[in-house]
Design a protein that fits this description.
The complex is a heterodimer of chains A (144) and B (122). Chain A is built from three helices and six strands; from the N terminus they run H-E-E-E-H-H-E-E-E. By secondary structure, chain A is α+β, with helices and mostly antiparallel strands. In chain A, strands 1, 2, 3, 4, 5 and 6 form a six-stranded mixed sheet that branches. Chain A starts with a helix and ends with a strand. With 122 residues, chain B is mainly beta. Chain B contains one helix and eight strands, in the order H-E-E-E-E-E-E-E-E. Chain B has a six-stranded antiparallel beta barrel with strand order 1-2-5-8-7-6. In chain B, strands 3-4 form a two-stranded antiparallel sheet. The N and C termini of chain B lie far apart (72 Å). Classes of the chains: A alpha+beta (144), B mainly beta (122). Chains A and B meet through helix 1, strand 1 and strand 2 of A and strand 3 and strand 4 of B.
Amino acid sequence: MNRIKAEVDRIVARLKENSALSGIRFVREYSSNQLESPIDGWLAAVCITDVKLSKSYVGGYMSSSIRGEVYSAGVEIRLFAPAEENGSGLSELAGEIISTLSESKNELNISSVTASAIGFDPNSDAVYRTVSCKLEFCASGEAV
Amino acid sequence: MSIFNSVGETIKRYGSKVKIEHNGDTVNTSAFVEPLRYRNRIYIGGQYHVLGRNRREKYLYIGSANHRLVENKSVIETHGNKYIVKRSETYYIKDFPLYEWAILTPFGERAEDDYESDQGRG
């Protein structure tokens, strides 16, 4: 398991500790299975949107005694509402995800959290909201 | 034979065997299920969605008015394939239901939680 995947798994594991989010199924993006139709219960797709790697001093030049690779990764959690649900329940759960991530920022190496407006996806016939966060962490750091 | 009986009899005689599932109930009956033919019949392939593969085929359903369908709920199984009802209507002559019309798409099973086994990890 690579480091980025492990970081994303930690985020989902942390979200699952919140009982208010226990009804959500989390799936990895772009599965080869047929799209669930209709959406049966709360369903969240976990996506890694972009990854940047910069060989740098950890913390920039503020702490130049440690050299390593700093990763910056974008993660999206796209939460789909069941067919019979409305936008209000969706916003409530998205808000819960945002607050859980914000509370655990340091533990999960999260630098920012944002959420999109509610959208409608005609392929799944469901409304969704996307919570995005930015991760920044150091991999293979070494003292110099 | 009245038009009501003849339509019902045609569906019964020439329709395929279908199983309709809805809310845990199952009904075995006959109906016509056929691909909807687009212009030039270019309906190969599909597209990927963040939740999985999305086959975009659409199917036409004509069945008995005795078995009403519910959009996004009723699942039709025939010839080893499963479909979900996306739109359905009942056709009437005067106030008598004649047949059930529906547009179907391939049914996608409920997705498993990919992170279930991660619970409890530190």
